[in-house]
Amino acid sequence: MIEHVLLKRGTKFEIRALRRPSDQDSLVKQYFGSLERRQRKKIHRRISVLAEMGPAPHREKFGKLKGFSGLYELKEKPSRIFFFYHGKGVIVMTHGFDKSGDETPPEEIDRALGLREMYLAKYG
């Protein structure tokens, strides 16, 4: 089971983040708790850009995961936050993690895909 919480409204794109019903905070906010203040601020700025413009064509900031239809990542080294679109004007963030190598860990991709599947099963 999965729910969503609103992170940002009143912009071109509404930003939602997923959370489990048993958790108080979203998975993204839980990830923020593991980061230093400076890194959190950088990611918040990146999320603000995403809310205003959607993913820019700049692959070093936002990128579509190759081979995974509709799954994107927000990038702020070493942090990554997966997201996808739900309808027009809604971006849903699944979770965040630290990327340590060149390749995105398959278990993180599987987690994002599973979370997206649960979200879509509930909210269409």
Describe what you observe in this structure.
The chain is an alpha+beta fold and 124 residues long. Helices cover 33% and strands 29% of the residues. The chain has 3 helices and 6 strands; from the N terminus they run ββααββββα. The chain has helices spanning 27-32, 37-53, 106-123, and strands spanning 3-8, 14-19, 62-64, 72-76, 79-85, 90-98. A 6-stranded mixed beta sheet has the order 1-2-6-5-4-3, with helices on both faces. A hairpin with a 7-residue loop joins strand 3 and strand 4. The longest helix has 18 residues, at 106-123. It is globular, with a radius of gyration of 13 Å.
Layout: helices, strands, pairs:
Blueprint: E1 3-8, E2 14-19, H1 27-32, H2 37-53, E3 62-64, E4 72-76, E5 79-85, E6 90-98, H3 106-123
Parallel strand pairs: 2-6
Antiparallel strand pairs: 1-2, 3-4, 4-5, 5-6
Summary?
With 124 residues, this protein is an alpha+beta fold. It is built from three helices and six strands.
Describe the strand arrangement of the main beta sheet, using strand numbers. Answer: 1-2-6-5-4-3
Give Rg in angstroms. 13 Å
Structural class comes to alpha+beta
Low-confidence sequence ranges:
none
Please give the alpha-carbon distance between the first and last residues: 14 Å
Order of helices and strands: EEHHEEEEH
Number of helices: 3
Number of strands: 6
According to CATH, the fold-level topology is YaeB-like fold
Mass-distribution shape = globular
Mean pLDDT equals: 91
* Fourth-level CATH superfamily: RelE-like
Task: Give the proportion of residues in helices.
Answer: 25-40%
